[in-house]
Amino acid sequence: MSQDNGVLLQLRNVTKEFGGLTAVSDVTFDLPQGQVLGLIGPNGAGKTTLFNCINGVFPVTRGQIIFRGVDMTGWKPYDVVSLGLARTHQIVRPLQELTVLENVVAGSCYGHEQRSLSQAEEIALEVLEFLHLAERRDQLAASLNVAQKKRLEMARALAARPYLLLLDEVLAGLNPTEIAEMVQVVLRIREQGVTILIIEHVMHALMNVSDRVIVLDHGELIAEGLPGEIVNDPKVIEAYLGDPALAEKLMSGG
Amino acid sequence: MTTNGAVLEVKNVSSGYGEVQILWDVSLKLERGKLTSLVGANGVGKTTLMRTVVGLLKPSKGQVNFNGSDITRISAHAKASQGLVLVPEGRQLFTDMTVFENLEMGAFTGRAKENYKQNLERVFEMFPRLKERRDQKSGTMSGGEQQMLAVARGLMAQPEVLMIDELSLGLAPFLVLDLFEILRRLKDEGLTMLLVEQNVQMALAVSDYAYVLNEGQVELEGPSREVAKNEDVRKAYLGI
Questions:
Q1: Chain A contacts of B41, Cβ < 8 Å?
Q2: Residues in chain A closer than 8 A to B234 (CB atoms)
Q3: By C-alpha distance, which of B153, B168, B159, B156 is closest to B32?
Q4: Which of A8, A49, A226, B18 is the most buried (most CB within 10 A)?
Q5: Does a structural domain hold residue B64?
Q6: The complex's ipTM?
Q7: B9-45 pLDDT, tens digit each
Q8: Which domain holds residue B147?
Q9: Domain boundary among B109, B136, B157
């Protein structure tokens, strides 16, 4: 399949099964260049599994993943990142014994630009500046607090200079002030032209940063649209709040 | 006891894990004999609140009162002995033990031992499936049966307040209905309960009073019937 105009990532009928459990079922969507796409869904809907399929942590059972016009289905994560797709993890795991700068240099070495170590350090310093971590460059990663570790996780991904950034719950565990700061960071990354796919439970923040939103429920894509459309979609409301018919049955049942 | 009033009172509690604060100044009250539900989206702190109330987590601020006394710093097993009982999320059964042995494990406190026989008869009457399977290893039962056992084990502890964390998670609709029927029966019998439930429609239908938690704070509270009509509930889940 050739790359459509302006479409950076295409998923075609992506399915992931673990034994008898279908965690992601027949998911198809396009992510246009420059957009922020929100990915939401109740607990266990398959959001992180879908991320793991996109960046190659899990091989897909069926379907195709096309990035920058290249069919990268079945690629390993280190090959995916070298094509310009980086991600953050819900549970951050920096290299604790390395400094903040060394962590980000490591991220920078894996990007699509195949840089030398000295170039990598230059990029890393820029990214640390951007994320307000520059003054902590020589601290051990282990010594950072939660909010700083979350920013370091972003820095490692950004240092690979990705075309597409997958963000998995970068706001989890942050206080309201830190959330507001992180939202600004996401918006600034987007201004730089990076396309973003974001999983987030802090809904007001997600709805604010996303151009469009897709919704997973039991592994299936049940809705796609503008944030304002999504929050009024009866299927989405039922996925989050439960089936009103069942509640009626309970109350009329005796 | 017939006196009305708050059995359990959570006052201005802040809590979390290490340096990650999850709850911010949360207050709630359980009225005696009422079913109170606590709803809210993923990751807003519902389980953290349950764990803090029963003593598995220590709050960084605030107070928990049970029957008028401050129990904030009392250990979890001591709270269970006083009748504050949790049915934990994910059931947490002793999967290599039989149904009967699991029920025995629920009845380790002094207050539970006194009424052991009576309580056992009661849970077997309430859950005939468990009686049929009394000598089966609990880990070999279906998800719905395991959830019944988790509730039954909680009842064996002779609770004054029964706290249930996710009654219906992962269960098929007909089982959800069965379990909620049981809940309604317990309520009719006068048991004070706090229910955390991801199925908001069911929780609001069955409960008397509801709290909506959002991002670690109580966003909304009121009689469940009124909360069910409030547009802000949808907003708490979906952001706008």
A1: 201, 203, 240
A2: 231, 237, 241
A3: B159
A4: A8
A5: yes
A6: 0.76
A7: 999 999 999 888 899 999 999 999 999 999 998 788 9
A8: 96-157
A9: B157
Which chain B residue has the Cα nearest residue A247?
Answer: B202
Of the pLDDT bands very low, low, confident and very high (cuts 50, 70, 90), residue B2 is very low
Q: Does some domain include residue B1?
A: no
Q: CA-CA distance, A65 to A166, in Å (whole number)?
A: 14
pLDDT tens digit string along B158-211? 999 999 999 998 788 889 999 999 999 999 999 999 999 988 999 999 999 999
Say which of B20, B41, B206 has its CB closest to residue A240: B41
Where are the domains positioned within chain A?
1-84+207-254
The CATH number, out of the four listed (1.10.3630.10, 3.40.50.300, 3.30.450.40, 3.20.20.140), of the domain defined by the range A1-84+207-254: 3.40.50.300
HSE toward the beta carbon, residue B79, CA cutoff 13 A = 26
Cβ contact A242–B177 (<8 Å): no
> pLDDT of A136-151, one tens digit each?
999 999 999 989 999 9
Tell which phi-psi region holds residue A74, choosing left (phi > 0), alpha (psi between -120 and 50) or beta: left
- Kindly state whether residue B91 falls inside one of the protein's structural domains: no
